[in-house]
Amino acid sequence: MYLPPQFDPQNPRLAHQLMRQHPFASLVSVDDNGLPFITHLPLHLDVSGADVHRAVLLGHCARGNTHWKYLAARPQAVVSFMGPHAYMSPKVYPDLARVPTWNYVAVHCTVQAEVLDGHAAKDALLKQLIADHEPAYAQQWRSLPEDYTEKMLNGIVAFSLKIISLQCKVKVNQHRPEVHARMLEIYDAGSPDENALGQWMRQLGLGTQAQ
Questions:
Q1: pLDDT given at position 209
Q2: Which of 132, 108, 166, 117 is closest to 45 using CA atoms?
Q3: What's the pLDDT tens digit per position in 145-182?
Q4: Cα dihedral 17, 54, 106, 40 sign
Q5: Tell me, what's the pLDDT at 112?
Q6: Low-confidence residues of the chain: pLDDT under 50
Q7: Where are the alpha helices (DSSP H) in the chain?
Q8: pLDDT, tens digit, for every residue of 57-70?
Q9: Environment class of 100 (CB within 10 Å of its CB; exposed 0-12, middle 13-18, buried 19+)
Q10: DSSP of 56-85, one letter per residue?
Q11: What letter would DSSP give residue 98?
Q12: Which residues sit opposite 62 in a β-bridge?
């Protein structure tokens, strides 16, 4: 993605934070006709090693979704995570010769895919996703009849996506310190997305000294 240096925090931990807070991602591959093929799906981020740059995303799609076949044939793909985003009025500037903009936080990952077949791998993946989104459901999943869970597992294909490279873009007008305090006022009084952008600003230390 287009990533001016002022919007690049150069901190993989911030990228991981966004990926965990907004796990519903867009997985982009190339289909057999050479066109982008996109699946929207939740992904689990696994950063189990000491090196924060070596992370893996885990996910699955329906067996009827041909995306897993594209991953098997052409394992390199892109994953996009979109965090909070909101319009920003030019009224935050002290002068009138300004234009509106749209602020946002996003992460793009280039990944190497590996299709994971077999019930054990798929069951382990589902348990990760359950733990992420509804831990209380784990007991219900374990108590379901075996023929039902086997049918459900047969209906999906799991995969791991090893992150090869990662870009994190935090666009909250870092290069315009004269507007940070006013931006925080607007974001704090705004929508949930605007509130979240305000929290990102504070995390980066923007505007807090002026308050």
A1: 58
A2: 132
A3: 999 999 999 999 999 999 999 999 999 999 999 999 99
A4: negative
A5: 97
A6: 210-211
A7: 12-21, 67-73, 119-133, 137-143, 146-154, 180-188, 192-203
A8: 999 999 999 999 99
A9: exposed
A10: EEEEEEETTSTHHHHHHHS-EEEEEEEEEE
A11: -
A12: 156
Q: Which amino acid is at 120?
A: A
Structure tokens at 45: 């981020």
Separation in Å, CA 78 to CA 30, 37, 163? 10, 10, 9
Determine the pLDDT at residue 211. Answer: 43
For the chain, which domains are there?
5-88+102-174 (2.30.110.10)
Amino acid identity of residue 29, one-letter, is: S
- The pLDDT of residue 210 is 44
Residues in the chain: 211
Could you tell me the CA-to-CA distances from 104 to 115, 195, 200 in Å, in that order? 32, 12, 10
